[in-house]
Amino acid sequence: MTTVEERLLPSAEPVCLIDQNGVPRDHSSYRLPTKAALLDGYAQLVRGRRFNDQASALVRQGRLAVYPSSFGQEACQVAASMVLREGDWLFPTYRDSVSIVSRGVDPIETLTLLRGDWHSGYDPYEHKVAPQSTPLATQLPHAVGVAHAARLKGEDTVVMALVGDGGTSEGDFHEALNFAAVFHAPVVFFVQNNEYAISVPLAKQSAAPSLAHKGIGYGVPGERADGNDLAGLLAVLGQAVEKARAGEGPQLIEAHTYRVQAHTNADDATRYREDDEVTPWLDRDPIQRLTTYLEHEGWLSSEVKENAEAQAVQVSAQLREGLMPEPEVDPADLFAYLYAEQTQQTREQAAFLRDELAREEA
Amino acid sequence: MTHMKISMAQALNQALRDAMQADDSVVMFGEDVGALGGVFRITDGLTAEFGENRCFDTPLAEAGIVGVAVGMAMNGMRPVVEMQFDAFGYPAFEQVVSHVAKMRNRTRGRVALPMVIRIPYGGGIGGVEHHSDSSESYYAHTPGLTVVTPATVADAYGLLRKAIEFPDPVVFMEPKKLYWAKEEVDLTEEQPGIGTAVVRREGADATLIAYGPAVPVALEAAEVAAAEGRQLTVVDLRSVVPFDDETVCAAVRRTGRAVVVAEATGFASVSSEIVARVTEKCFHSLAAPVRRVTAFDIPFPPPKLEKYQLPSVDRILDAVDDLQWEDS
């Protein structure tokens, strides 16, 4: 018999299977992922980092309106998608573009929102990825609804719902956890705690012992992991997904990571934090430590490296080529998708706009 | 069996029952809608008949209820959710405005949300604070929502069936003071669709435009006016969004005079929108400015004072008298 505490409380320390020096650590509850998983993860990390760098560069060149980078959080991004099966759902936030691409969504369609030619560019049903949510935590009840519907239909779908540390203060986070627990819905709530909600540090956000502890009040088991250790994340998230699929209800996972860059290109992080705080996190880089480990094991052949590099080169070329041309937008789209059938009023307003444009052209 | 005398509450209940019978993907949930059958008994017996997977109680959290409905609609269900009272729907406002209303548009039509948010609304039942709001203008102001409200027993059934079958989210506003009003109805009779207003009474002298709980008051006023020699047309909007300009304007053009009757406060409201539309479209047919009978711009009063806030036959008749008749 496990006690309530054993069932619900997260580990005393964030689960870490490969430390920041690339040294493997034993853990009583979690095992290192397979070599194949780690090599796949390595390639995705390299590609994810390149995606972040290229997207940020494209903002500077005026090709994207804004880009909230997940630089330094790529292990979380990649792991969240890697642990899912086909048919599972991902509910991302605006900072989770790398996770969306890892799920198989087209990189250009992923960036439609941030480029500004439409609100959401990809078909959510194609890869089972919900539109990126900007109002914080509001996507979490949707994730519960998808999971609950799947359960009622007898499908073994698991839903991965992403949220940040700031988002855990929102009412929707709490309502979603509570609903999921009561409905026994197969949702993994994955909190990427990157220490900042724009400028507000975690200490001003929450007095909880950890964000994973927030599950206790709802009867949702919590766990936490080193957010820069892909191995630990794959193990912890993988187990959470398995439990949810096996009918054990929702799981809450907190990853301890750090937002190395500013909130977006429009933000000035020097106004609220010192460089001294950022520097140690650069040594905890998720790619660096996995590389060290894989090299030490002798698994990082030149073929593996070249393959990863080739994927990274490909995605950055894809972004440049796809985003450099001015996007084609159609003003008629403003009315086309509001209702299944347009109302008399939207038809009239669409006609007004059409006439206005025709006059301008004349 | 086809003709029976039932209340609006019973008609709504029957609409839910028939919709759930007709389509397995229809699910009903909210606060106290299970064993209790809802505080107004609109979901009475549904859990017993269809089981806990089809009609179920939820935790007491309106944003969660609507948010979960969004996800269920994304995944092939047709959720119908109940907000227990008008003012208790406000915690869900962000979900309604930012997601329910926008999902189809932001995904270029790829994700539709066929769902219904049922909201008992309005005063006239002696409800204490926060139990009598007319919140329709908040929803009508939000592009992407469809907002309907029945005024008759037949429409309660017909409109709710159509709302559940509708491809887009519908905010279904139920005038709670009419819940117990009984009518002889034939539920199998096809009612006009969403987006269509209906002329409830024909009269040549002026038009009363009303919706929801104000419709029976307008009809009563028309009855009194007729006895006094003035014939009034009464238009029941039924559907606030989409708005039926054609039916409304045709009635106003026929009569040349109009009064809008609504239970909600008047400032920046559905009633002000109607006046603006009628004035823009029918200006040359109007013999007098369009008048309004609405609530005062104050919070809904406590039960002992609510009669001063609700539109009355006398206020409607006074407004009609003020329409610059040539003989006065």
From TrEMBL, chain A:
Residues annotated as transmembrane: none
A biological process term (GO) from this entry: branched-chain amino acid catabolic process
Domain of life: Bacteria
Cofactor(s), by name: thiamine diphosphate
UniProt catalytic activity: N(6)-[(R)-lipoyl]-L-lysyl-[protein] + 3-methyl-2-oxobutanoate + H(+) = N(6)-[(R)-S(8)-2-methylpropanoyldihydrolipoyl]-L-lysyl-[protein] + CO2
Gene3D superfamilies: 3.40.50.970
Main enzyme class: oxidoreductase
UniProt KW keywords: Oxidoreductase, Pyruvate, Thiamine pyrophosphate
Domain Dehydrogenase E1 component residues, every copy: 48-312
InterPro entries: Alpha-ketoacid_DH_E1_comp, DH_E1, THDP-binding
Enzyme Commission (EC) number: 1.2.4.4
Record-level Gene Ontology MF annotations: branched-chain 2-oxo acid dehydrogenase activity; magnesium ion binding
Function: The branched-chain alpha-keto dehydrogenase complex catalyzes the overall conversion of alpha-keto acids to acyl-CoA and CO(2). It contains multiple copies of three enzymatic components: branched-chain alpha-keto acid decarboxylase (E1), lipoamide acyltransferase (E2) and lipoamide dehydrogenase (E3).
Family named by the database record: Belongs to the BCKDHA family.
Name of the featured protein: 2-oxoisovalerate dehydrogenase subunit alpha
Organism name: Kribbella kalugense
TrEMBL record, chain B:
A family per Pfam: Transketolase_C
InterPro entries per UniProt: THDP-binding, Transketo_C/PFOR_II, Transketolase-like_Pyr-bd, Transketolase_C
Cofactor: thiamine diphosphate
UniProt key word Cell membrane: no
Keyword terms, alphabetized: Oxidoreductase, Pyruvate, Thiamine pyrophosphate
SMART domains (UniProt xref): Transket_pyr
Protein name per the record: Pyruvate dehydrogenase E1 component beta subunit
Organism (species): Kribbella kalugense
Lineage: Bacteria, Bacillati, Actinomycetota, Actinomycetes, Propionibacteriales
